[in-house]
Amino acid sequence: MMRRLYTLLLVLLLPYMLFHLLWRSRRQPEYLRHIGERFGFYRGKPAAPLIWLHAVSVGETRAAVPLVAQFQARYPEHRILLTHMTPTGRETGRQLFGDQVLQCYLPYDFPFAAKRFLRHFKPEIGLLMETEIWFNLVQTCKKAGVPLLLVNARMSEKSARKYGRFKTLSRDSLQALSAIAAQSETDARRLIELGAPAVKITGNLKFDVAVPQSAIDLGKNLRQQFGPSRPVFLAASTREGEEALIMEARAKIDIPNLLIVIVPRHPQRFDLVADMLTQRDIRFQRRSEDQPVAPETQVLLGDSMGEMFAYYSACDIAFIGGSLLPLGGQNLIEAAAMGKPVLIGPHTFNFAEVSELAVQAGAALRVANAEELVLTAGDLLKKPEKIKAMSVAALAFADRHRGATERLMALIDEVLNA
Fold first, then answer.
1. Domains of the chain from N-terminus onward
2. Could you give the strand order of the β-sheet that contains 259-264, starting from the edge strand earlier in sequence?
3. What is the pTM assigned to this prediction?
């Protein structure tokens, strides 16, 4: 009964879903492409057996890299199907994997759409990345006999409250999964409180993502463009409102010739941030211009996709966005893997455990607000020995937490063999 009510609610929300696609398409026209896939209509049936991996957007797609590599090595006769919900996730998958994998959108959680998806692709196994529990999809997979796993699972306090509002649906869905692999003990505890019968802790796949040599080489080129002797402060994956706060506080950084690099989390905000910088009479250049940064330029706007490792490589200090305002923060693991000192704000509930572990390891510092952020960054830039110590700690922190891929593959092998 609860699932029927949930499905009825989805039907009532259908006009909003279509309007949402139209609204988002104003800045990203790609939202109006492949609309049929969102309702279970696809072209070209695959010839090979499929392993299906659902990665909603950019972060999950990047985290899937070591897992896809392992699947391709262990199951070469299978094709990998990568599904997404956002155009940026789909584009990230194309950049990372090219034609090595199949890609499409996962349909909305209507029973008829889930059935069409499974009939078309006939996956031998499905994996949902991180925090994706689709009530109808899970039950449809169970009825169709398709093993479905929730992997690299994280469950923030906020997400737990959200799923807790649908307690019966959440419990039934978690119990219908073939296995659950969580990132941490805290994630596992919250999943069990929601009704999961058993949860294995395998760690975070993002620690296993190898830094591409191409990104390191690009980082060196970027550093030359920035000016090899200029101190570089990176504000990575910033969210709405944070760029303005940093610009308001930047005057407190007493560092001559400082270059601030701002990389917004979402590409549809590139032009909005550019407008904000223009309104404040801040001299800036765009990364997309691919030109050397002029000495008088104060800010470089990182309006490019798929270059975050290179930005980390080219900076001295990295602030991880989404954490100055109550947005939950973003992933700091890539910055740590590049050996960069990390600064985070007070709001990291989406990555609570890894953020706290990084602080404890000496790889990250937490700041209370934008003013403290710029003061801390300025203090670090005056102390190269402190930057070096945090860099060493960041590399050690990243290395210490690797191994999630092997632990997860052992679990997946068990399910496939069963």
1. 27-203+403-417 (3.40.50.11720), 213-400 (3.40.50.2000)
2. 284-286, 299-301, 259-264, 232-238, 317-320, 342-344, 364-366
3. 0.87
Beta-sheet strands, E only, within 216-258: 232-238
- 60 noted as active-site residue: yes
pLDDT in tens, 332-357: 999 999 999 999 999 999 898 999 99
Q: How far apart are CA 199 and CA 185, in angstroms?
A: 9
- CA-wise closest residue to 58 among 248, 297, 322, 252: 322
Alpha-carbon torsion (352, 354, 357, 358), positive or negative? negative
Contacts of residue 200, Cβ cutoff 8 Å, sequence gap at least 6: 179, 180, 181, 182, 188, 407, 411
In sequence order, what are the residues at sequence separation of 6 or more whose Cβ sits closer than 8 angstroms to the Cβ of residue 155? 131, 163, 182, 187, 190, 191, 194
Do residues 246 and 373 lie in contact, with contact meaning Cβ atoms separated by under 8 Å?
Answer: yes
How would residue 418 be classed by pLDDT, with cut points 50, 70 and 90?
Answer: confident
Contact 408, 151 (CB under 8 A): yes
Distance, CA of 117 to CA of 35 (rounded, Å): 14
pLDDT band at residue 306, thresholds of 50, 70 and 90? confident
Amino acid, single-letter form, for residue 32: L
Cβ-contact 38, 108 below 8 angstroms? yes
pLDDT at 389 over 90: yes
**Identity of the amino acid at 392:** V
Question: How far is residue 374's CA from residue 176's CA, in Å, rounded to a whole number?
Answer: 48
- What is the three-class DSSP state of 17? helix
Would you tell me how many other CB atoms lie within 10 Å of the CB of residue 280? Answer: 12
Which is the catalytic residue, given 30, 37, 60, 240? 60
Find all residues with CB under 8 Å of 326, minimum gap 6, and list them.
Answer: 347
Q: Report d(CA 40, CA 113) in Å as an integer.
A: 4
DSSP helix/strand/coil, 223:
helix
